[in-house]
Amino acid sequence: MHEVRIHGRGGQGVVLASKILAKALVEEGQFVSAVPQFGFERRGAPVVAYLRYDQAELRALTNIYDPDCVICLDPTVSRAVDIFAGLKTDGTLVQTSAKPVAEVTPELPETVKRLGLCNAVAIAMEIFGRPITNSIMLGAYARTTGDVSLEALQNGFQSVALRDAGLDQNMQAIRRGYDETSVHQLNGSA
């Protein structure tokens, strides 16, 4: 079983990202459960969503306390919450960051063994004119983990999106997130 926790801020599409990823994983034959968690429910407040998937049927519907992977949609959210809490010892981090890997790794706990970096805020500003990074970071997740295809993500987005406005932009955003993510294997000293 794989467990993913997605962190971001209200208005960035954290919950929508978990739904899109869930749809994409189902398309690829996985059993999936996605569990959003709401707090203050206001724009800018920390938001988290949980997702688990496996080849076998899932029974657990709880929050995820020990994720295999953390996706962080906002480069500042780690100042407000511990995004690394419970991350498994061979964990994966998919992070929005404009920093080079040499500047990011000293800030990481030793549990992070695989790191995907994507300057998603800059990409979002180019595509949307706003720092909404959810679709970009789904592409980054696909690149970093290889657990889901771009085609499945794009189909998942089309099936979950409520309206066609921005569909082409989001397809471009998923692709750019995939293409512009650098993946790094870390050796245990983060």
Secondary-structure map with pairings?
Layout (H helix, E strand, L loop, with lengths): L1 E8 L4 H14 L3 E7 L8 E9 L14 E4 L18 E6 L4 H4 L7 E7 L1 H8 L6 H12 L4 H11 L6 H13 L2 E4 L5
Parallel strand pairs: 1-4, 4-5, 5-6
Antiparallel strand pairs: 1-3, 2-3, 6-7
Helix pairs in contact: 1-5, 3-6, 4-6, 5-6
Widest sheet: strand ordering: 2-3-1-4-5-6-7
Rg (C-alpha, Å): 15 Å
Q: Helix/strand-derived class?
A: alpha/beta
Global outline: globular
C-alpha end-to-end distance? 25 Å
Compute the number of helices.
Answer: 6
Mean pLDDT reading: 90
- Enumerate the spans where pLDDT stays under 50 for 5 or more consecutive residues: none
Fold-level CATH name = Pyruvate-ferredoxin Oxidoreductase, domain 3
Number of domains: 1
